[in-house]
Structures are given as C-alpha cells and as structure tokens.
Amino acid sequence: MPSPDKQTVAFIGLGKMGHAMATNVQKAGYPLTVWNRSPHKAEALVAAGASLAQSPAAAARAADIVISSLADDASLKSVVSGPEGILGGLRPGAIHIGTSTVSPGLSDELGSMHTAAGRHHLAGPVVGRLTVAEAAQLVTFVAGDADAIESVRAVITTYAPAMVVVGPRQSQAAIAKLIANFLGASAMDLIGQSLAWAEKSGLPPELVPQMLAGFFGNPGTREYIAKIAERDFDTVGFTAAGGRKDVGLMIDAAQAVGQRLSSAEALRAKMDEVIARGWRDKDWSCFTDIDLA
User: Which one from 27, 77, 177, 270 is the annotated catalytic residue?
Assistant: First the structure.
C-alpha cells in the first residue's frame, strides 16, 4: 500500500455530493484525477489543477486511491466492471473506496471482486446533506481490510472527519448507513405526523418544534436507547398496559381532527402483541422486543 504522504487520488462520479467531496480532497493537497459521464461537471476541479480522465479505468491507473460516488447499485457495478471500469485500471494493491448508499449484497460482491483481482475495496458510505459535504463535515461508516482502512484514513477525513470503522465485511458499512437513513426517515415521518396533528388540532405552531427539540436532546431518550439495547424491560417506569392505553388515546384524538397516525397504528399492533404475551406489567418499551426477538 502507498505511503499516506505520497498518495494520489482519483474521484469517480461528480454529482453534487461527489463534486463537494472531490473538492475537499483537492483542497487538502492530494494530486487528483477525475472522471464523470458528463465531463463538464469536472470543469471547476480541472481548472483548480485536477486531471480529467477519459474512462474510469484511466482514472484508476493514475491513482493509489479511487473514490467513487455514484447513484445506485447498477451505476456503481457498471463503473467498476469491464475493461474500462475501475477494476480494469486499478493498480495492484490499490484501494477503491465506495461512498455510495448501495445494497449490502453488492458491497460484499465488490469486496470479493477486488480481492480476486489483488486489489482492495472499502465500503465507505457517507451520511450528511450537501451543505455538510461542502463544509467537509460528513460522517462515514467504513468496512474492509483494517490495514487498508488505516492507510487511507487521512484521505477519508478530508471529507468525513467523523469516520466510524464498523468491521471487516463491506456489507457491515452498507447496513450501518441504511440504519442511519432509516433513523432519519423515521424521525421525519414522526415529525411530519406530529406537526400535522398539532396544526389540525389548533395548537400554537411553535409548540411542537419546541417539544421535538426537547425530546431529541432529552436525557430520558438516551436512557431508553440503553434500556432497549440491554432489553431491560423488568425495570418498569411505565407499564405496557398503560402505554397501550395511551397509544389508543393518541390514535383516537388524531382521528377526531382528521389525522391518521400510521406510526401509532403500527405501534398499537406491537403493543397488542406484548399484552397477548402476558407482558402488561413490563416496561412499555418491551414492545421493541417484537423486533429484537
């Protein structure tokens, strides 16, 4: 593997996120080669000193480290495969870092493809909006060969200073990223349902945003994270029977103003199941065991 202070980098895929990340790699002083299906997206990087390659393979031949940022499984696999793909040009011992959100299966498949060719593939999906990428403050989950990860840490932290190593299998990073997105999407769904319910009920518009800010920063929320992770449902703060009653009240109150709480309906079904299991006197967080079991 190349010495970190002599690494050259190729960046494949210059959409908005990819362009922002490549810009931060370039600003950190790494010699940069770029490739994109639409070459005009590389103009600013080339003007700042990057070299423009004619194919992914040509970009890979010019670099110790190749970073890809592509839309989905199909586009990533197509850019990796074939004589003009990344693997067609990647140097022996060189490292390809995939920063896209893709399936765990493809992540492991790419790992196997690279290993068979005597190269390294690291799954390194990133978390953060475009503004966060532009500010070089992304979070990344990284999985693959431990030595390879350490050899590219300095490059990765130019765009993602919060770097979490999750294990040796590439799919582990893909799963971690999907969980992060699941948390984000679920939180947005809850926020939207809560705001709609409050609006239809005539509550002050500033109330729910204040409640949300308090909830996500509340020590009690952190306590429940630990409680559920440890499956400690016998230390009871509020019973499952009481929780089931409250969830029913939530659904009824929202329906009265024409708002459906789909998340609460799913929660009610889980709480009905824990009551049927005889857990009415356990802590109400025990409904999460429906998923944990």
Answer: 177
